[in-house]
Amino acid sequence: MAEDPAKTNAPDSGAPTKRRRRRSGGGRISQLMENYRMTRESDPRIGWILLAWLVGVGALVFVPISLLLNWPTAILLAIPSGLLAATYIFSRRAMRAAYRQIEGQPGAAAAVVQSLRGGWFVSPAVAVTKGQDLVHRVVGRPGVILVSEGPSSRVTHLLANERKKTARFLPETPIYEVQVGNEEGQVPLEKLQRELTKMPKALRPGEVTAVRQRLDAVTKAPLPVPKGPLPKNARMPKTPRP
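The structure corresponding to this sequence follows.
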């Protein structure tokens, strides 16, 4: 019986999907290795630390379960537990290493906010001074957040001016000021994401888009970030959706 030519010549519909999955898996592994290399540059002991957490947590799970039940069950539970603990520690240390690489660089605060997920829109360097003090504008569910980089004595006036400009176009939208730095009253770079995500939500997603579009329409294009760019290999690890 002759085969149906349509079936014979039909492409394997599953092949492209499999290839995409392989590329996706390879991309994740490549990104993981890149994050590990970046972390090891500032944290040379990261490999031994991860191994200690893997073995330590695995042993804590294995010993009591093997005594109460049996060793095969203990192994099945100990290995995932150790891997989960090591993954958590690695993500925390990778984030810390990324902060160390970009801290002090002009535009670091904007890079941190841009790595946030969940409807945050960043306009870097809406105000810049000759001393490389910056103000970035962030639009999100809390409203408009003006994020500054630089000494408090210099950026306070810069933030006040930008706040007046923004309030002129959005008189009823909440406007916040956040100074990034290590001085008293400022927010350290590594705590910036947490500071933004814990702000009260005043806008609906549709209102966030409308506010962003209005600001883009009535304000000038962002100024260029001063010289002293972020390291090329400094990438902020993605954070989960809040």
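The beta strands are 121-128, 134-140, 143-149, 175-180.
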